[in-house]
Design brief:
The chain is mainly beta. Helices cover 0% and strands 53% of the residues. The strands form 2 sheets. Strands 2, 4, 5, 6, 9, 10 and 11 form a 7-stranded mixed sheet that branches.
């Protein structure tokens, strides 16, 4: 059974940092790309970043402006999202998701709440 479990969220003041983790199981982790998404209250879910399984290359949404860094540890089957200089607009539920070979996402974690107070 494929599982993705996020952790590391919480409440932080604006300007602070958090590191999210996504522990994966039930599939060969290093065979797949993984993405981070978020959904703010009253808004649609949006892509945050993704990381390749082949060369570890990463993509970030332009609105992040270099504040977030995504990485993966294939030995631990874990994905990370380091979030720095957090802003109130970063508040939302963050999800990790497994990417298919067609570039779609087929399995999702349960989500992890991040709240940034201003």
């Amino acid at each position: 059974e494929v599982q993705l479990v996020e952790s590391g969220g919480g409440l932080v003041q604006a300007g602070g940092s958090l590191r999210l983790s996504c522990a994966a199981s039930g599939f060969t982790f290093d065979d797949y790309g993984i993405g981070w998404f978020r959904q703010a209250p009253g808004k649609e879910r949006e892509g945050v970043s993704c990381i390749s399984n082949t060369d570890g290359s990463t993509y970030y949404a332009k609105f992040l402006k270099g504040r977030f860094t995504m990485s993966r540890d294939n030995a631990k089957n874990t994905l990370y999202l380091q979030m720095n200089s957090l802003k109130s607009e970063d508040t939302g539920v963050y999800y990790c998701a497994k990417e298919t070979s067609r570039g779609e996402y087929d399995y999702w974690g349960q989500g992890n709440q991040v709240t940034v107070s201003s």
